[in-house]
């Protein structure tokens, strides 16, 4: 390390620790970072993708977008405005997002206020209280998605019932698809150190039908308690108008803006994304929201009824590829 570097080691630690707290499918953390002066590249790590469940790399790019959003939030606390370029270099396709830090001033209003939520937010797979999500919070989450160029659709009772039908089909397929099952077994269940989803973070098994995804369906269900889930889950679908790799990165930025905003209202969140991992079922979900945009994530939201555990992360040093 030279003494003329733009960022100090502490600042790099703050930025990359925040980025690492982003959600990623099965907690694969499919990212590496390359820092050159005031430019941070968020790179796709091909060793940490899910070739069976995520053939196109859509979920991977959503995770990379979420990591880039957390970078922006941490940079805002350090006083840097940020601008982003998506897949800026055709010669290096692994670079998903290039983050440019502007000269240091004072903490950037807005974004920096979300910094406290970065470590608090996590995926909560337990039951929610029956209390409704207040309209003000719904509006704030919808606005958070819009700020990143995405949409959030809150489902009404009829749409929720219809989604329940689609989820039941997806759950059934998930259990019987040997390849997907093996891929999930590699990342999910048991004790985990650094990545993957440990059994302790999987939440209880539902008593009766519930809007929840059991990531360990088909294996590793011993030792988990059971719980009755909420009757009317608040469910929102995050979508983008276009459907390409840039839209997926954008969906990741929007997802993280929505999740951190939810956390700032003390709301817990989880995902029902199994319905989007099969092309025909994703089309059914697309129809549910009027076919005007592409569903990227299905988010369940509410006040948590139990405590819950966080999934582990690798130390930030393990994600830093180069620093010049
Ligand atoms: C694109 C994407 C899809 C996901 N799909 C699901 C899902 O269907 N079910 C689920 O329980 N969690 C899902 N997750 C949440 C991840 O499992 C979670 O982010 C990861 O384990 C890290 O844990 P944390 O969110 O608690 O920090 C998804 C996350 C992303 C980014």
From TrEMBL:
What's a Gene Ontology MF term here?
Answer: oxidoreductase activity
Record-linked Gene3D superfamilies: NADH Oxidase
Q: Which domain of life is it from?
A: Bacteria
InterPro entries attached to this UniProt entry: Nitroreductase-like, Nitroreductase/BluB
- SUPFAM superfamilies in UniProt: FMN-dependent nitroreductase-like
Q: What is this protein called?
A: Nitroreductase
